[in-house]
Design brief:
The complex is a heterodimer of chains A (305) and B (234).
Chain A: H1 6-12, E1 17-22, H2 31-40, E2 46-49, H3 61-70, E3 75-80, H4 86-98, E4 103-107, H5 128-141, E5 157-162, H6 169-182, E6 186-191, H7 195-207, E7 215-220, H8 226-234, H9 243-251, H10 255-270, E8 276-281, H11 290-296
Parallel strand pairs in A: 1-2, 1-8, 2-3, 3-4, 4-5, 5-6, 6-7, 7-8
Helix pairs in contact in A: 4-5, 5-6, 6-7, 10-11
Chain B: E1 2-6, H1 9-15, E2 21-27, H2 30-33, H3 39-56, E3 61-67, H4 73-76, H5 80-85, E4 88-91, H6 95-104, E5 109-112, E6 114-124, E7 127-132, H7 148-151, H8 178-188, H9 193-196, H10 224-233
Parallel strand pairs in B: 2-3, 2-4, 4-5
Antiparallel strand pairs in B: 1-6, 6-7
The chains are: A alpha/beta (305), B alpha/beta (234).
Chain lengths: 305, 234
């Protein structure tokens, strides 16, 4: 056992793991995180707390993760390479571990020009693969980067992102392999809309045996409307939304219901794909729908860790 | 070469406030190639300032000159008689040139006429792109001859992020993804094995994070005696 987090225990037992996501507020009031945590408790095994997603200033992922812990909900703290150098990353991991955060997701982060601090300077002292190297070494060898011993190593289960829909496609599994080599215990993918491409990617993942060295969680975003589908197709980088999905949303009498139905169908399909060990559901600004999705997909009740 | 571009005239004029005898000093090296601060641009700048002075009845006296390389004191010292006549130098060179002028003539204010941007190359006529991040620890042998420090928006070292699509960077549909280019280059070179390597955290000590950098080539440094001899010859 590396960290003893709920999701680590469940993965180790071979359970199909479900994670959700809570976006921290643009506020110094933590009650939105608290309310989401209370409402969502029991409907997923852990929840990601995003780290200033789309480079918009929000409550920190560490503080939000601690609020979740107070509510008895397991957090996955996201940590971008955009805003921290290796000093801050290591320091925040020590702090997070001290406060009881047991899962951390290493990501490059959206470029600062997307957000509300366009004039800021990014850091990228490390990239997400180097971040995994540094943080897993802290845990496994009890050393900070550069060899100084820690009195107490952090207890953390390390995650990383993977995007099967970015290019060049033929490098995408290699990149995953590098993340696994660098220390990724679990992987959450970019939201899947193009299931064919995801399956092609997974086939290569399993042929390289990577599904046995890390736990792949398939990312899902339930579509709220045809507008949302079009937006993600045209405006969100690193996403592929097939036309037939846009058409299906367009033709639907009740688009919201159709979006949920698509998501449930996707989960049912993902359960049949070799090497997929869980789903990461991101109902962006639609958190209240998570329980319904998980229930309709037959993933309730969640197992006790 | 060093790529720069002229500051807006309005900003230059505002920065020149309080000065009356202005020497516009250009450079025949990099900034001439990137059409920002060579002899021609110096002429246009000097004429624009004269016009501005005439229209607004400011009585400015504008002199103009262009040296071979404004970053080397040997050339900049030639400016001495002209600097003596001026109460300010508008440097049309890169930031290095402007600082060299300031260092050699510490009693005269130097105003930058350009914004110095990057180490790059001409892409096509009238277009220049950044190529080198000057990190002090070159990795081009690992990256197919394409610099990820300068050309990737996140200076990533282990491959393209999730925002790379159709060869383009997530920050702008007109910006190529450097890591896509690296991948294609290594593929052409039959060295995709290099894409599999995990590149560990980089030391930024030789980069500017270690403070201003200084390179000393011992074999070229003159001894006190040699300096004395050289001065004697001069």
């Amino acid at each position: 056992m590396k960290a003893g987090s709920n999701i680590e225990k469940l993965f180790d037992r071979g359970e199909f793991v479900v994670t959700g996501e809570i976006g921290p507020p643009m506020s110094s009031d933590a009650s939105p995180v608290r309310e989401h945590a209370r409402f969502l408790k029991g409907y997923a095994d852990a929840f990601n707390l995003t780290d200033n997603q789309t480079a918009i200033v929000r409550m920190s992922s560490l503080a939000s993760a601690v609020v979740c812990l107070e509510e008895g909900v397991e957090p996955v703290m996201q940590m971008t390479c955009r805003d921290r150098n290796r000093i801050a990353m290591q320091s925040d991991l020590l702090g997070a571990s001290a406060l009881g955060v047991r899962n951390l997701l290493c990501i490059a982060g959206d470029h600062q020009t997307f957000g509300n601090q366009r004039e800021s300077k990014n850091v990228y002292d490390l990239d997400s693969i180097q971040q995994l190297m540094v943080l897993s070494r802290m845990r496994d060898e009890g050393k900070v980067w550069g060899d100084n011993d820690l009195d107490e190593a952090p207890k953390v289960y390390l995650g990383a992102a993977a995007n099967p829909f970015a290019d060049p496609f033929e490098f995408r599994v290699t990149r995953l392999a590098k993340k696994v080599k660098a220390g990724a215990d679990f992987i959450q993918t970019q939201a899947i809309f193009d299931m064919d491409r995801f399956e092609r990617w997974m086939a290569e993942v399993t042929s390289r045996g990577l599904h046995e060295r890390t736990h792949i969680m398939a990312g899902l975003v339930p579509l709220k409307s045809v507008g949302a589908a079009r937006y993600m197709k045209n405006r969100v980088s690193g996403m592929i939304v097939p036309d037939q999905l846009v058409d299906r949303m367009k033709a639907a009498e009740d688009p919201k219901e159709e979006g949920i139905r698509i998501c449930v169908e996707q989960i049912e399909h993902l359960l049949t794909i070799e090497g997929v060990h869980g789903v990461h559901i991101m109902p962006v600004a639609w958190e209240k729908k998570l329980p319904e999705i998980v229930e309709r997909a037959g993933l309730l009740p969640r197992p006790t860790p | 070469m060093i790529i720069g571009e002229q500051k807006p005239l309005k900003e230059i004029i505002s920065n020149l406030e309080g000065h009356e005898t202005i020497l516009v000093a250009g450079c025949r090296s990099c900034v001439a190639i990137c059409l920002a601060g060579g002899e021609k641009e110096v002429g246009i700048m000097a004429e624009s300032l004269r016009l501005h002075s005439d229209i607004n009845d400011l009585g400015w006296e504008i002199a103009e000159t262009t040296v071979e390389r404004q970053c080397e004191s040997e050339w900049v010292l030639e400016l001495a008689p002209l600097v003596e006549e001026a109460d300010c130098v508008l440097s049309m060179a890169c930031g290095v040139g402007a600082q060299t002028v300031q260092a050699l003539f510490p009693d005269t204010r130097v105003i930058p006429g350009l914004n110095t941007s990057n180490m790059g190359a001409p892409e096509e006529q009238g277009m220049w792109s950044e190529k080198c991040g000057g990190c002090g620890d070159c990795v081009l042998h690992l990256t197919g001859g394409i610099c990820p420090i300068a050309r990737c928006a996140k200076s990533l070292l282990n491959g393209p992020c999730g925002g790379s699509q159709d060869g383009m960077c997530e920050i702008d549909p007109d910006t190529p993804c450097a890591w896509d280019e690296i991948f294609q280059s290594l593929k052409r070179l039959g060295r995709l094995d290099l894409m599999e390597e995990v590149i560990p955290p980089k030391s930024w000590i030789p980069s500017r994070n270690g403070g201003p950098r200084k390179i000393v080539k011992e074999s070229a440094v003159l001894t006190e005696e040699e300096k004395h001899t050289k001065e004697g010859l001069d």
